[in-house]
Amino acid sequence: MPIVTIQQGPRDIELKRDLVARVTDAFVDALQIPAEAVQVWIHEVPADSWGVAGKLTADK
């Protein structure tokens, strides 16, 4: 059973629903497995806890 972990900043629930559906479909197509076998975990990290190029994303 594939478990996909996505780390990202906070997003709207509708965007997350679409993301989970698309990721699941990709695994179903690529691995020829049932959708029920795919788990997608979204780990949202606040902007003050994420850095890029030496700076917090909250400071951009």
Q: How does this model look, in words?
A:
With 60 residues, the chain is α+β, with helices and mostly antiparallel strands. Helices cover 32% and strands 27% of the residues. The protein is built from one helix and four strands. The protein has one helix at 13-31; strands at 3-8, 39-44, 51-52, 55-56. It has a two-stranded parallel ribbon. The N and C termini lie far apart (38 Å). The model has no long low-confidence stretch (mean pLDDT 96).
Task: Record keyword descriptors for this entry.
60 residues; alpha+beta; two-stranded parallel ribbon; two-stranded antiparallel ribbon; 1 helix; Tautomerase/MIF_sf; 4-oxalocrotonate tautomerase-like domain-containing protein; isomerase; 4-OT-like_dom
Write the layout of secondary structure elements.
Elements: E1 3-8, H1 13-31, E2 39-44, E3 51-52, E4 55-56
In sequence order, what are the helices and strands, one letter per element?
Answer: EHEEE
Mean pLDDT: 96
Question: Would you tell me the structural class of the helices and strands?
Answer: alpha+beta
Strands, count: 4
Bulk shape? elongated
Strand order of the largest sheet: 1-2
Helix content: 25-40%
> Tally the helices: what do you get?
1
Radius of gyration: 14 Å
Main sheet makeup: 2 strands, parallel
Poorly predicted runs: none
Spatial separation of the terminal alpha carbons: 38 Å
Proportion of residues in extended strands:
25-35%
InterPro entries: 4-OT-like_dom, Tautomerase/MIF_sf
Protein name: 4-oxalocrotonate tautomerase-like domain-containing protein
Family: Belongs to the 4-oxalocrotonate tautomerase family.
Keywords: Isomerase
